[in-house]
Amino acid sequence: MSEKTDIKSMNLETLTKFLTDMGEKKFRAKQIYEWLHLRQVESFEEMTNLSKTLREQLDKKCRIVSLKKEQVQISKIDGTRKYLFLLEDGNVIESVLMKYKHGNSVCISSQVGCRMGCRFCASTLDGLERGLTPSEMLDQIYQIGKDIGERISNVVVMGTGEPLDNYDNLLKFIELLTDENGLHISQRNLTVSTCGIVPRIRELADQKLSITLALSLHASSQKKRLELMPVANKYEIHEVIDACRYYFEKTGRRVTFEYSLVGGVNDSDRDAKELTDLIHDMNCHVNLIPVNPIKERDYVQSNAEVIEAFKEKLERNGITVTVRRELGRDIDGACGQLRRKYKENRM
Ligand code: SAH
Fold first, then answer.
1. Nearest CA owner, ligand 1 atom 7
2. Best of 123, 137, 156, 158 to mutate for ligand 1, by most ligand atoms within 8 A of CB?
């Protein structure tokens, strides 16, 4: 990757220092910041309220990270769009646009690949390449906004990668995305999903942001969680739950538990009962996801009656539950599938 400074990953304060160090006036930083994060231009050339000399100087020192739209697949069923973006170093990542009544929601990737090894997930099959920079996370949203010509109101960090395994960049990204001088997406409209890296959940809680934490639970006992998620070797299920309680205490934000229902693996009556016992006293919400089968593994979806019974069992115990509507089934909707297919074809 080029040695030039990644100017799009700088917050306004850092950018101001950068410019004053170059002998420029402070207000220039604000102008440039607006070009980058509001008008979202992709070259210094376009920053027409700066002198030509300054534009040339900036161009020598800095690069403006912009993702290249390599492929878009649009679902005929529900309008969901799945994007494949090319990064400067030749890697590709996926992002998804989902259209809801309440607005446009973008699901972004936080890493190229992933090293968490969840058994049902396609993103992790080839391991981790690298974490994304704040600018690469941001630009997924910028590019999609430009592509559809509409405002993006919600962002979920639920694509490829483990966001808490790229923690510092994630925090910078959140700061830029929610900054009033930029796109200004409300913290409440941002969700970060994690497989449960306990110390990071606690650190994030201490930041006292208003973002939603989604915890990929997928099992109600340590034994079963271990079968699906290697990260459970490191952090025991009760430690993870305690970290979620801490998150709620510190932020007042209700935690979402994601539970992918895998036929015959974690969808029995007993699983529902254990799950209830585990979380019934928490201020939380359960999102049941019918597992999206990937060809590399033989996991299957639970059938509709089983899903309904599981849901009712939780609800009878006072837990709020939603079953995730499957979007983009016809366009390789599951995490990492599109990127994988692209890479296979390219090889
Ligand atoms: N690493 C983070 C975020 C990325 S995965 C995390 O683990 O939460 C986003 C969500 O999709 C997680 O809940 C993950 O477990 C789930 N997921 C991944 N592959 C899936 C599949 N094939 N079917 C259903 N859910 C899947």
1. 195
2. 158
Distance 259 CA to ligand 1 centre (A): 9
The Cα 4–Cα 8 span in angstroms is: 12
Per DSSP, the three-state class of 277 is helix
Chain centroid offset of residue 183 CA? 17
* Distance of alpha carbon 317 from alpha carbon 313, whole angstroms: 7
Report the distance separating Cα 306 and Cα 265, nearest Å.
12
13 is catalytic: no
Contacts of 141 (CB under 8 A, 6+ apart): 95, 106, 108, 152, 155, 177, 183
Specify the DSSP class assigned to residue 282: S
pTM for the complete prediction?
A: 0.96
pLDDT tens for residues 227-285?
999 999 999 999 999 999 999 999 999 999 999 999 999 999 999 999 999 999 999 99
> Which residues neighbour 133 within 8 Å (Cβ) at sequence distance 6 or greater?
6, 9, 65, 169
Distance 163 CA to ligand 1 centre (A): 12
Q: Which residue, by CA, sits nearest to atom 18 of ligand 1? A: 121
Other beta carbons less than 10 A from residue 97's beta carbon: 25
| Ligand 1 contact via 287 beta carbon (within 6 Å) | no
Is 193 a pocket residue for ligand 1 (Cβ < 6 Å)? yes
Nearest ligand 1 atom to the CA of 160 is 4
Q: CA-CA distance, 179 to 177, in Å (whole number)? A: 6
